[in-house]
Amino acid sequence: MKMELRKSFQFEAAHLLPHLPKSHKCRRLHGHSFKVEIVVAGECDPEFGWLMDYADITAVFKPTWEKLDHRYLNEIPGLKNPTSEEMAVWIWRRLKPKLPLLTEVVVAETCTARAVYRG
Ligand SMILES: [Zn+2]
Fold first, then answer.
1. What is the whole-number distance in angstroms between the Cα of residue 109 and the centre of ligand 1?
2. Is the pTM of this model over 0.85?
3. How far is the CA of 76 from the centre of ligand 1 (A)?
4. Distance separating alpha carbons of residues 8 and 106, to the nearest angstrom
5. CA angle 17, 92, 76 (to 5 degrees)
6. How far is the CA of 118 from the centre of ligand 1 (A)?
7. Could you give the residue numbers annotated as active site?
8. Which is nearest to 50 in space by CA: 99, 6, 1?
9. How remote is the CA of residue 34 from the centroid of ligand 1, in Å?
10. In angstroms, rounded to a whole number, what is the distance separating the alpha carbons of residues 51 and 40?
11. Angle subtended at Cα 45 by Cα 44 and Cα 50, rounded to the nearest 5 degrees
């Protein structure tokens, strides 16, 4: 039985996008309530009847979440230009070695705008 699990997280952070013209609103320092979705997929364990424990996804993401929550993202190594796209790739690279079933990282900076990275 193939299955996909999606686990959502939220964090608050500030950023600016330094490569944009000064007239662009995203060039100014501002904050978002970011939402991250971590997606894993694979074959369910027939005995447990699940793909994996959601708590294990949380445990793998926690150190990364702590690096992001209530931070100025531009100061984080590897996130000098913290667009949603760059953040999705950055999160993927941190999680994939510890979460081999990872298939997708979604980063949403508003309710209506999100970036999806599939490796
Ligand atoms: Zn922004």
1. 7
2. yes
3. 15
4. 9
5. 40
6. 22
7. 26, 70, 109
8. 1
9. 9
10. 8
11. 60
Residue owning tokens 């996008």: 17
Amino acid at 37: E
**Token pair for residue 17?**
């996008």
44: CA distance to ligand 1 center in Å? Answer: 37
DSSP secondary structure string for all residues of the chain: -EEEEEEEEEEEEEE--TTS-TTSGGGS-EEEEEEEEEEEEEEPBTTTTBSS-HHHHHHHHHHHHHHHTTEEGGGSTT-SS--HHHHHHHHHHHHTTT-TTEEEEEEEEETTEEEEE--
Tell me: the pLDDT tens digits for 38-63? 999 999 999 999 999 999 999 999 99
